[in-house]
Design brief:
Layout lengths: L1 E7 L4 H11 L5 E8 L5 H8 L3 E4 L8 H13 L5 E4 L8 H6 L4 E5 L11 H7 L4 E8 L9 E8 L6 H24 L3 E4 L2 E4 L11
Parallel strand pairs: 1-2, 1-4, 2-3, 4-5
Antiparallel strand pairs: 5-6, 6-7, 8-9
Helix pairs in contact: 1-6, 5-6
Bound molecules: glycinamide ribonucleotide (GAR).
Glycinamide ribonucleotide (GAR) binds next to helix 1 and strand 5.
Length: 210
Amino acid sequence: MAKIVVLISGNGSNLQAIIDSTETGKIAGDVVAVISNKSSAFGLQRASNHNIATHIVDHTQYDSRESYDAELANTIEQYKPDVVVLAGFMRILTAGFVDQFTGRLINIHPSLLPKYQGLNTHQRAIDAGDTEHGCSVHYVNEQLDGGPVILQAKVPVFEDDTADTLAERVHVQEHMIYPLVVKWLCEKRLRLQSDGVYLDDLLLPEQGYA
Ligand code: GAR
């Protein structure tokens, strides 16, 4: 079984979707630890509910990004994970950290990257008059919400949408595409090459994702 470590800062609904997919066997892996930079993150409770180890690595206790990321990397590495998943982990990571986990470090972002990196993506899509919006799962590099995109899902933007209604529509998609990409990584079917991202083999209905 592949070992998955998930980093969070908040609610953890994507974490929950991934845990659920491991427990139903859709993902051939286990979430072995959940790490948060905030002790108040509800996702820590979600992890405890499933008897998953939790750690708080509080960024306010470190005086540099480098020292914080070094401690974060140590905490992660003790689990020797195959996959490191950022699921609403709201911190910019140093190049050293990203290098250490290249090829096994992924993030989900609530926009159709490269559009709307950073915060308030739903309101920005509405303000721009976009008719479609969505979410992206990508390999992480040292740029904020940067790195090669693996999979995206699109949703329509309706005229009466608020940031909340649009976020809700995007979340439904996040909870489908993130477990799917984690599944591919656990099966070692994704390859990050200098010329792009490759998925080996066709998706078959009997694999649960027709
Ligand atoms: C998700 O919408 C995710 O795309 C976003 O944070 C939310 C976390 O929700 N991530 C980013 O904005 C990263 N730049 P969750 O805690 O319920 O999974």
